[in-house]
Design goal:
By secondary structure, the chain is α/β, with parallel strands linked by helices. It has helices spanning 9-20, 51-56, 126-138, 155-169, 185-191, 208-216, 268-272, 274-280, 297-303, 309-328, 334-358; strands spanning 24-32, 35-40, 43-49, 69-73, 81-86, 92-96, 104-109, 113-119, 142-148, 173-176, 197-201, 241-244, 250-253. The chain binds guanosine-5'-triphosphate (GTP), magnesium ion and zinc ion.
């Protein structure tokens, strides 16, 4: 099987240059602690980066990631290929690393679509979906929501959950499917066109690897039962891996993420909560904080049930997180951040207080 060559013109130009310089161009398909697996045509090779690249690397962005096209030097003996350059990236899916560090982790690059997989079991959580959507949108790829395990629900239950998702998904394509009964798998398959790369993200136990096994047509990837009481997975997939499909296209499996912190998402929070932004335009005061002002369209929408309170709280939380990350990666914004954070913190507190009082 061959990894698809779907490159932008910028990438093609860069590829030509590296080929002219005597390099080969390969795709990174896996990463294991500083060692990489790369694929050229249908051959998988081991690779390492040059000392120069390691020395020059300032951030995570300067290291190869799964999905990257890289310029490599190949050797006839069995020694690993050496990665010299990373071709410009078309799309990048990043998150903040877990823990206290404010650092970027690249999940995958050069994908066309991000499949956000979530189980329709006890793991179902629209607030988490909102977060995944912001991260996926920022990558530059198209987000698609896949709701697994539809076999566990009655038709009525399924319709109810789809309605909840519709309220937060904006226009993202949403497919509820079952890897067990195979219902709606064909629709998913159709989204994976010949030259496309699709990255799968979602919590552990959501069913990412199971779905990939169905799409690949065998059971090569290891999957595991989830805990019954809360549908939590066992973190079965341990590293990111790009897998070419027989019919063309390829998929990137990733380990389930316990938490997905926003990384430098710019205006994506506003974009993926455009329903709230539109409401805000109708507030009486242009600087309305939507906490308690008269003529507030956001509060009115919450009161009349068109906007869910949880969604608005989620919006405030993600906004605050995005502000924090943006300022951390730019020291000069520190002062501004503190002021804004304090304000958003107050707004959130005031908002929750007011709404709880009213109930
Ligand atoms: N009933 C039902 N079970 C499913 C479906 N899809 C996956 N599962 C089950 O869910 C469990 C977890 O699936 P995995 O594919 O390992 O989940 P994952 O998202 O890859 O999890 P990590 O690798 O830990 O991130 C397995 O027991 C699957 O059999 C489905 O559509 N219906
Ligand atoms: Mg898995
Ligand atoms: Zn308002």
């Amino acid at each position: 099987m061959v990894v698809p060559h779907c490159m932008t013109s910028e990438q093609l130009t860069s590829q030509q240059q590296y080929l002219a310089e005597g390099f080969s161009v390969a795709r990174v398909i896996a990463e294991h602690k500083g060692r990489y697996s790369i694929m050229i045509d249908d051959t998988v090779l081991s690779a390492e980066i040059t000392g120069k690249m390691m020395f020059a690397a300032e951030t995570r962005k300067d290291y190869p990631a799964v999905g990257d096209w890289v310029a490599v030097q190949l050797y006839d003996d069995n020694s690993p290929a050496i990665v010299h350059h990373i071709l410009p990236r078309r799309t990048v899916l990043s998150r903040k690393t877990s823990g206290r560090e404010v650092e970027e982790q690249i999940i995958a690059t050069n994908m066309d679509i991000v499949f956000i997989v979530q189980g329709l079991d006890k793991n179902f959580n629209v607030r988490r979906l909102e977060r995944f959507l912001v991260v996926a949108m920022q990558s530059g790829a198209v987000p698609v929501i896949l709701l697994s395990k539809s076999d566990l629900l009655s038709d009525d239950e399924l319709q109810g959950m789809l309605k909840e998702v519709k309220a937060i998904s904006l226009n993202a394509v949403t497919i509820a499917y079952s890897a067990k009964t195979m219902v709606h798998l064909e629709e998913i398959r159709k989204l994976i066109t010949e030259n496309s790369t699709i990255c799968f993200i979602g919590s552990s136990g959501a069913g990412k690897s199971t779905l990939i096994n169905r799409l690949v047509g065998n059971e090569n990837i290891y999957t595991q039962e989830v805990r019954e009481e809360d549908s939590k997975g066992m973190h079965t997939t341990t590293h990111r891996e790009l897998i070419p499909l027989v019919g063309g296209g390829c998929v990137i499996d990733t380990p389930g993420l316990r938490e997905i912190g926003l990384w430098d998402v710019g205006v994506r929070v506003d974009e993926s909560f455009s329903d709230i932004a539109e409401l805000a335009l109708q507030c009486k005061f242009t600087d309305c904080s939507h906490a308690q002002e008269p003529g507030c369209a956001v509060q009115a929408a919450i009161d009349n049930g068109t906007l869910e309170q949880g969604r608005y709280e989620s919006f405030l939380k993600l906004k605050r997180e995005a502000e924090y990350i943006a300022s951390k990666s730019d020291v000069t914004k520190q002062q501004e951040r503190k002021a804004k954070e304090k304000k958003l913190g107050k707004v959130l507190k005031q908002f929750v207080k007011n709404n709880n009082k009213r109930r």
